[in-house]
Design a protein that fits this description.
six-stranded mixed sheet, 24% strand, alpha/beta, six-stranded antiparallel sheet, 432 residues, 20 strands
């Protein structure tokens, strides 16, 4: 089911994207109050934007723009809206994303070719271990994509290892869609209850929300912990509500493949200029083929690196590497730049740590402070020293670490108002 354009020559892919770029710019200039106003203010004639390189002549769109002018991004009348999705906003209020019937078809197509990339085929059964309600786009997208592929879906939702295993053993799914750390809980439950998890028919898991790979595509501590015990293939996928598009790994696990008919991506530096090949920067995208709420040069806040070397799967599209960190979550600590994923990988290295949270605050000198609270079965100074030594060896700095109860951390991590577990808390004065 690989679209022909993904196996085409780079020049053909670029030609298609530039044709679709002109279409989307003409469309938003006619139908989006936000972009119509922006282009008029900046004296931009969209007909002069003809190449990917010409995108640099356009201003970027930020999360703050979405928050302040949310309704002005809508390009269709209210009676054409079929689904209402929301995502967290930078100023407190959630941001609405409207989807037309055409947009839902595009969303289904995106997920179908993304799941195909990860090896899911007609005849497979997939257990959906994420929420599909609460205006959450991802769960709906997964369901629509799998339905389009004629793949069976078991909608279990998040959490509850006992219920997950009941469905796995009863319906024999071949793939799971889940947060990867939850797989460790499934393993733990299976071992306690003597379930032979390596003979339950599962081939793999599509993993969301947590990184499976280091920057060189080697496995993180988390993914290694899972696969050392459970003989299943793990696939990483990267997406967001704003882009309505996914970048999913193929069997070779060297980055999430671009769907060039759906999205144009750039990686920008601090001055909103493209970085040099091989350098990291902020992922910025322009959506293609969206009817209700297209976005032009939208800055995601995610720091990534693009990869263009050939992939053995036959796709000639560029690939997005593992997220290094979120720009707004960058921490300057004792002269060292850190991102939460690096600290999370170290914490996952210790089996004795049952749960954790990372809290960033501003000290009296106006600089960043890090406090990591951990829950362990047996608290000891020796364990604290060992964890701190590991931080020092890997990151060159040692944050403050203290013990907390499992119950206390559980209530903070599993906030009922959040769709995902929260392990990172940014309490800095300038945090948005």
């Amino acid at each position: 089911m690989i679209p022909a354009i993904e196996k085409a020559a780079a020049t053909e892919i670029k030609d298609l994207q530039e044709q679709k770029l002109l279409e989307v710019l003409t469309y938003v200039n006619q139908n989006s109050p936000f972009y119509k106003r922006l282009f008029f203010k900046e004296k931009i004639d969209v007909s002069t934007i003809k190449t990917i390189e010409d995108l640099q002549l356009l201003p970027v769109t930020t999360k703050e723009d979405l928050q302040k002018y949310n309704d002005d991004f809508l390009c269709v009348s209210a009676n054409k809206i079929i689904d209402y999705a929301t995502t967290s906003g930078t100023l407190g209020e959630p941001v609405t994303f409207w989807l037309s019937d055409k947009d839902l078809d595009r969303l289904a197509y995106n997920e179908a070719i993304s799941f195909d990339c990860a090896g899911i085929k007609e005849g497979d059964i997939v257990q959906l271990m994420t929420t599909i309600d609460r205006r959450f786009m991802a769960g709906l997208a997964y369901f629509l994509g799998l339905r389009k592929m004629n793949v069976g879906v078991i909608r279990v939702g998040a959490g509850i290892p006992e219920l997950q295993w009941d469905s796995i053993l009863k319906y024999r799914p071949t793939y799971l869609i889940t947060v990867p750390s939850f797989l460790l809980k499934l393993i733990e439950y299976a071992e306690i209850n003597k379930i032979d998890y390596n003979n339950c028919g599962l081939k793999g898991a599509i993993c969301i929300g947590e990184s499976l790979r280091n920057q060189d595509f080697s496995m993180t501590i988390l993914s290694k912990k899972i696969t050392d015990k459970w003989n299943i293939k793990l696939f990483s996928t990267y997406a967001s509500t704003e882009m309505s598009t996914a970048f999913t790994e193929c069997e070779y696990s060297i980055g999430g493949h671009l769907h060039p008919e759906l999205i144009i991506v750039e990686v920008l530096d601090e001055n909103n200029k493209p970085v040099k090949n091989g350098e990291s920067g902020e992922l910025t995208f322009t959506t293609l083929g969206i009817e209700a709420m297209p976005l032009v040069r939208f800055k995601t806040g995610d720091i990534v690196q693009l990869h263009t070397n050939p992939c053995s799967c036959g796709r000639n599209t560029l690939r997005v590497g593992p997220v290094i960190g979120r720009k707004q979550q960058m921490i300057k600590y004792k002269g060292t730049t850190l991102y939460p994923p690096a600290m999370i990988d170290i914490l996952n290295n210790f089996d004795k740590i049952k749960n954790y949270i990372i809290i960033i605050s501003t000290n009296d000198l106006g600089t960043d402070e890090i406090l990591i609270r951990i829950a362990v079965k047996d608290e000891s100074e020796a364990l604290l020293h060992k964890i701190k030594d590991h931080f020092r060896a890997k990151l060159r700095v040692t944050p403050k670490i203290e013990f907390s109860s499992k119950q206390e951390l559980h209530s903070l991590i599993n906030n009922p108002m959040s769709r995902k577990p929260i392990h990172f808390f940014d309490n800095r004065k300038n945090a948005v």
